[in-house]
Design a protein that fits this description.
Elements (H helix, E strand, L loop, with lengths): L1 H13 L7 H30 L14 H4 L17 H17 L1 H4 L6 H11 L7 H12 L6 H20 L2 H4 L5 H11 L7 E3 L6 H10 L6 H9 L2 E5 L2 H13 L7 E3 L16 E6 L9 H4 L9 H12 E12 L8 H13 E8 L12 E8 L5 E6 L14 H11 L8 E5 L26 H25 L1
Parallel strand pairs: 1-2, 1-4, 2-3, 4-5, 6-8
Antiparallel strand pairs: 5-7, 6-7, 8-9
Helix pairs in contact: 1-7, 2-7, 2-13, 4-6, 4-7, 6-13, 10-11, 10-17, 15-16
Family: Belongs to the N(4)/N(6)-methyltransferase family.
Protein name: site-specific DNA-methyltransferase (adenine-specific)
EC number: 2.1.1.72
């Protein structure tokens, strides 16, 4: 039933003039899902309070409750069409009354880790893109048929939402910023092996895929109420700069069962890295920071190693944010391993001297849809210098792409060998003292299969050209704004 509802929603959104892409579909579905989730949560809390003989004070006031404006019911429990807003009246209400009311919660919330604060953040950042009140009415009716009552229902909804995020990632370059293939995330988590006592952080959270997968990994280990309480409230932490990603990430965590996720809507890189103190550090870091971005000079001033490359600034942030003895797994483009500019060399040296870079996983082209660059995953522990690096070149035996995405079976050999740093046709070790002491070059060179690097496919080259064109267009647009 849920799957059909999501298909119906997509059909409605495709016909809506205000929604032009999968990104819009996911954003608009998100705020509607959030309000329906909130209504179900309030109903459950009210019932629980009644059973305890207590009085429950709702978060949303009576005038703005889902059951009044979105889905008023008649005596038989069916939608009361006479009271349900629709058409221009519905659009006017949502834009002029509902969103401003919900946005006001941010200023009234007691702290950032409350659901009230999340309400204010979400509705202060996104806008209703429905232009037709009749399309919005159809979407509301579809959403109203969903129920968040049981864990089984939440699990099914979270899987459907993940599929929607994946579609958004496949829709193009911008969407791809929010989606890391889940088999890769699961493999990274299995190597890092977080525990229930760890704090887990992603400073470039996107759709919170890393934290959701880490939650699924740890949930079976939470045997007591105290374990579950810790898992829900004091284990997962995130920061995200972009509004859409913040909303999607928040909804994704909620659908996985985390009621008030510890996601801060902020530019992670605006924080001076030298100001990070012990209380700000985490036991585990899992991340895929954006690569190819450029940061302004004032942001670069927050870092000892000055560079405009966003991913390199994030890597500095992650090294400083990791506790001594903590573990990290970070996706980065493979040119980091070999670039000879001052920033790349200095950052490699910093990583090798302050951390044990024990594993480098070389991913095949096409792992990330729409990205014209190859990536590697760096696995490192904080506190001891690198003595030996174990490399693994992943070869799934096929061309990766939208119709041939990465799967869990592709990662099995890597996970098995990594446990003992076992060598093989695609796995080898390099002693740190054999690295070039000037460049600290970490290039992936398989001694078991010396060969020329494979030529990039025409599609990869076209993807990169498209990416560069998009960058140029964005820069020109900024220049025009200044004129």
């Amino acid at each position: 039933m849920f799957e059909q509802t999501f298909k119906n929603l997509d059909d409605i959104l495709r016909k809506e003039a205000g929604c032009a892409s999968e990104l819009d579909y996911t954003e608009q579905t998100s705020w509607l899902l959030f309000l329906k989730y909130l209504d179900d949560l309030e109903a459950a809390r009210a019932t629980d309070a009644e059973l305890r003989g207590q009085v429950y004070t709702p978060i949303i006031d009576a005038a703005h409750r889902w059951g009044l404006w979105a889905a008023p019911k008649d005596a038989a429990g069916r939608l009361d069409h006479n009271r349900a807003k629709t058409g221009p009246d519905l659009i006017a209400y949502v834009n002029r009354e509902l969103f401003p009311y919900l946005e006001s919660f941010k200023g009234r919330a007691t702290s950032a880790d409350t659901i009230e604060y999340k309400i204010g953040e979400i509705f202060g950042e996104i806008r209703n893109k429905f232009q037709s009140g009749y399309s919005l009415r159809d979407a509301i009716d579809a959403i109203d048929g969903l129920s968040f009552g049981s864990q089984t229902q939440k699990h099914e909804l979270s899987e459907l939402y993940e599929a929607k995020i994946k579609n958004m990632g496949n829709a193009g370059r911008n969407g791809g910023e929010y989606y890391t293939p889940r088999p890769l995330i699961r493999a990274m988590i299995k190597v890092v092996k977080p525990t229930l006592n760890d704090t887990i952080y992603d400073g470039a959270a996107g759709s919170c895929g890393f934290l959701c997968e880490a939650y699924d990994y740890l949930l079976p280990l939470a045997k007591t109420t105290a374990d579950r309480e810790r898992l829900l409230k004091r284990t997962f932490f995130a920061k995200e700069k972009k509004s859409l990603a913040y909303v999607i990430g928040t909804m994704n965590m909620i659908l996985h069962g985390i009621e008030a996720p510890n996601i801060v809507h902020t530019n992670t890189l605006a924080e001076p890295v030298l100001d990070i103190q012990e209380k700000d550090r985490f036991d585990v870091i899992l991340a895929n920071p954006p690569f190819g971005g450029k940061e302004r000079p004032e942001i670069q001033q927050n870092f000892p190693i000055k560079t405009g490359e966003t991913a390199y600034l994030f890597l500095q942030h992650f090294i400083k944010s990791l506790r001594a003895g903590g573990s990290a797994a970070v996706v980065i483009k493979n040119t980091f391993l070999s670039n000879t500019d001052n920033a790349s060399v200095a950052l490699r040296r910093e990583l090798l001297e302050s951390c044990n870079l024990h594993t480098v996983l070389d991913m095949p082209s096409g792992t990330f849809q729409g990205a014209g660059v190859k990536t590697v995953v760096l696995f490192f522990d904080k506190g001891e210098p690198t003595r030996s690096i174990w490399y693994y070149r992943l070869d799934p035996g096929r061309n990766m792409g939208k119709t041939n995405p990465l799967n869990d079976a592709d990662m099995a050999d890597f996970i098995e060998r990594q446990a003992s740093f076992a060598e093989g046709p695609n796995a080898w070790s390099v002693a740190a003292d054999t690295l070039d002491p000037v460049t600290f070059d970490l290039t992936v060179r398989n001694p078991n299969a010396p060969e020329a690097e494979a030529l990039r496919s025409p599609q990869e080259i076209l993807d990169e050209i498209a990416a560069l064109d998009a960058d140029s267009a964005e820069i020109l647009a900024r220049v025009r704004e200044l004129l």
